[in-house]
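Narrative of activities, Objective 1.

The group set out to show that a structural description can be obtained from nothing but a protein's sequence at a throughput compatible with the screening campaign. Below is one input-output pair from the validation batch, recorded exactly as produced.
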Amino acid sequence: MRTEDRLEAMQKELNTMKRRFRWIIAVGSFFIFGVWVFGAMPGKSVQASVGEILSADVVIAQRFQVLNDQNKSRASLGVISGEPALYLSDSRGEVRGSFVLMDGNPSLSLSDAQGNERIFFGVLEGNPILRIYDAKRNVIWSAP
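Output recorded for this entry:
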């Protein structure tokens, strides 16, 4: 495979990752907006009936969770060990995606159905990094 072909393939993969990252940011923003719209004061639960509108200028909490009909967590937004984190779970409640800050560095992690991290995109020691793993967590592609 020619160098130009490899660069073109890598650029295509990077563009795909950028689109997915933007999608995750959009979902996270939508989630935060939903929390704001249906927010509650600290220590109090609020339930809204159909057609009821809730509003607040500021919502204060350490963690927000979105549950499905079986009360399994599907999304969680909170502060873990002093750092903000957004976790997205599958229908079984297993975390499949996360957007977190680790020591102030942002990272996005996507896992397969078995819970194995398959994609990591973030900043480590001030440098951007993208890694793609196989099912046994061996690196199959990395940039830089």
